Amino acid sequence: MTTGPARDETRMIRANGHRAHVRIDGPADGPVWVFANALGTDLRVWDPLVPHLASKRLVRYDARGHGLSELTPGPYTIAMLADDLAAILDALTLKSTIVVGLSLGGMTALALGARRPDLVRALVLMDTAPRIGTAATWGERIATVEAEGVGALADATMARWFPADFRRDHADEMVRWRAMLERTPAAGYAACCAAIADADLADAAAAVAVPTLCVVGEHDGSTPPDMVRGTASSIPGAEFELVPDAGHLPQVIRPDDVARCFARFETERGLS
Fold it and tell me: How far is CA 235 from CA 134, 145, 204, 213, 214, in A?
């Protein structure tokens, strides 16, 4: 079993030319699960899930240009973001981890598996695909953010992230997630958009040789279920799970369902 930092610790780690904000929770001798956040979020996007994973050691971090991690000049690439994560794990002397990536973080996790297989024991790819959108679409989004700020995308993003009934019935909680998005630095958001626009990880997906679980919210408006099902079919031996009544951030609305998916995957694949 890998050993390392004790429970409940926050660090700034020098990683691949920037300082990364990293949070570590859980028992020092538990299975190590690493979490990579989505575009326009930070490590708090996993908060609803954390109480359901109390027996595991959780390593969460803010992607470059997001949250409290350092903003460096863009554009970024998925390879750069994967190397950021590799540097964080190297600094923590962690290997053979279970890497969970959400959307942009899922692309990062796929690239990490291809570039540093020693760091990855298994993959959980949430609401993601080897290629998302088109260069033209991402170019339009970058132009909007540069001209008007991230807030200009908030209404459309909330609609993709959360089903309509959740937005209606949880107005107070929606303030939290909207604020997380709007407070993402425009330059960091745009630089990560550029990384997604240029990415095609089809070869990395086809070459995955570790247990892989693909998870998606039933009402995901960014990477719909059929897209994520296609991701699973492109990865040898990958499993697919649909989280009911959830959107692009299923762990926010259905953390218990997501945790059960993780527990089943961990048990059936002998990862505990």
Answer: 22, 33, 9, 10, 10
Buried b (16+ CB within 10 A) or exposed e, 220-245: bbbbbbebbbbbbebbeebbbbbbee
* Residue 238, domain extent: 9-268
pLDDT digits (tens, 9 = 90+) for 83-128: 999 999 999 999 999 999 999 999 999 999 999 999 999 999 999 9
How many domains does the structure of the chain reveal? 1
pTM: predicted TM-score of the whole model, two decimal places? 0.96
CATH number at residue 214: 3.40.50.1820
Q: Distance (Å, rounded) from C-alpha 20 to C-alpha 72?
A: 11
Contact 75, 163 (CB under 8 A): no
